[in-house]
Amino acid sequence: MIVYVDVLIVVSFYINYLLLRAAAVLIHKKVKRLRVIIGALLGSLSSLIIFLPDPGNVTILIVRVIAAVLMVAVSYNIDGFKELYKCSLLFFFVSFLFAGIEYGAAMLLGGSSAIWHNSIFYVNISLLTLVISTTIAYGILWLLRRHFDSTSEADIKYTVTVESFGKTVQFKAIGDTGNNLCDHLSGKPVIICPKTSLSSIVDTGVVEQMLRCDYISDSVIPPKGWRLIPFSTINSNGLIPAFAPAKVYIKSDYDKKTHLIDAFIGVSENDLDYAVFNPKVIAV
């Protein structure tokens, strides 16, 4: 079987990029696209060991582990060795899941030939098969995250710091495992925040207009940077205005550890005493 270097690098880069993004989704890790691209490129270059003579299983294992850890370290904003260890383990889990689904899809959809050498699995599959298999794998991981988010236990009290529109605001928050609200387009969780706490960084008049509008009978388009996210509770349902801030930090009042979270900020119609979020978003 002929292995083409350009095809190997491009396909490996595509898969590694999705692996890194999928792992970030599972741990609610906010990542920068450029860093993920560099990490995926490092991973694709490491796949060139498929052309080397067999150096032995131990050497191959060491090279692959080092390459994976480097990908994680470059792609994510890592805070210490413990977080690097956890993120690397999760990245391995995601990689194994993707590999199994990709192989199965290749066989079902007509993967004509494959080669396994130096721990690199190369399958001659079409672009359509590759896209379908990775989409399925990403969907499974998204469902897993939704499941684990809904079964996490709440922690104690927290401090939320929101940076947006060139301003910063802080307020108290509590963990609530019943808060499974998320943006269905991006899959990002929504932190429900008090109106008054956000008054210094958002236009309260615009927010009030979105909160009070009857979206069934009125034609309203959210301002730039805002989304209307459907919610449902025991007592009510509707749409909550939300925006994606520049940065969101959640600090535990217990261990004083600060987490950078990739999430939307939802503005509650009721003036809550605390912000509410699912504590699973700071699990790592």
Short description:
The protein is an alpha+beta fold. It is 41% helix and 22% strand.
List the helices and strands and how they pair.
Layout (H helix, E strand, L loop, with lengths): L4 H22 L6 H14 L10 H19 L5 H28 L4 E5 L2 E5 L2 H25 L5 E8 L2 E9 L14 E4 L10 H9 L13 E7 L4 E7 L3 E6 L5 E4 L2 E4 L7 E3 L7
Parallel strand pairs: 4-11, 5-10
Antiparallel strand pairs: 1-2, 3-4, 3-8, 6-7, 7-10, 8-9
Plain-language structure description:
The protein is α+β, with helices and mostly antiparallel strands. The chain has helices at residues 5-26, 33-46, 57-75, 81-108, 127-151, 204-212; strands spanning 113-117, 120-124, 157-164, 167-175, 190-193, 226-232, 237-243, 247-252, 258-261, 264-267, 275-277. Residues 151-155 have low confidence and may be disordered. Strand 3 (157-164) and strand 4 (167-175) form a beta hairpin. The protein folds into two domains: 5-151; 157-282, Beta Barrel (Cathepsin D, subunit A, domain 1). The protein is elongated.
Uncertain segments: 151-155
The strands making up the biggest β-sheet line up spatially as 9-8-3-4-11
Structural class by SSE content = alpha+beta
The tally of structural domains comes to 2
**Fraction of residues in β-strands:** 15-25%
Straight-line N-to-C gap:
42 Å
Rg, alpha carbons: 22 Å
* Count of distinct strands: 11
Largest sheet: 5 strands, mixed
Which features does this protein show?
284 residues; alpha+beta; Cathepsin D, subunit A, domain 1; 2 domains; five-stranded mixed beta sheet; four-stranded mixed beta sheet; 6 helices
